[in-house]
Give the backbone structure.
Amino acid sequence: MVKLGLRSIVGKGAAIYVKREMNFGSGTKEFTVDCGGDLIPVVLTRKRVKNINLRIRCNQSVAVSAASHVPLKAIEELIREKAAWILKHFDRYAHQQKDRVVLFYENGDQLNYLGRTYILQVQEAIHREEVLADQDKIYLLIRANCSREHRDKMIDRWYREKAGYILNQSLEKNYPLLARHKIAKPALVIRKMKTRWGSCSLHKQKITLNLELVKMPPALIDYVVLHELVHFIHQNHSKAFYDCLSGLMPDWKERRKLLKEKGILG
Ligand SMILES: [Zn+2]
């Protein structure tokens, strides 16, 4: 599985050494931390982790995982310490969400396709309505005065059509890399997903890919497809899994980094 939309913000530096043993039990706890008037919602999960791990979630909250002996106070302190940073990320997510919502598919809008930005040209259709692309423009040919929903549908259909072709092509290209493992070729399902670029079902022999992938550069599409294919040999994200992936795609870490930077969905 290749996740998206969440980002670790605290690495080793945030390790908090706690001398006192305190047991808060297991499970998930939700609370807010007052950071000078800004309330930051926190979802705390007790796990067997070394450090306190913080992740910004796209719904304007922070997911925290910490060992059971880390006191709540230490977690609150860390949130306050990182408040400016967290709020900056909340703003960024909100901004990105806004960008997505306000796209009315009008002349001059920017659309992403295969890692490149295209300028949208809306023109009145003389014959049939369609979407066409050239080197740097995407043309939306539609009847006059049609609704935003209709434009949305036309563009969405175009992306789906392209995704069907491009993502299948990536599967055709990457599947032979695993030939010696003799796995059956999985079927491909493409749909919109909020939190993942891709996932796989060994049982159903299928890979599900996010439609949004068609907006990413081909090298990143290949990374997601190969990542999912390798799961048919190694189910978990074990060392063996990553060894296999590295053997087939030595620069996968760079690709994953780029994907994380580019792709944050609401
Ligand atoms: Zn995975």
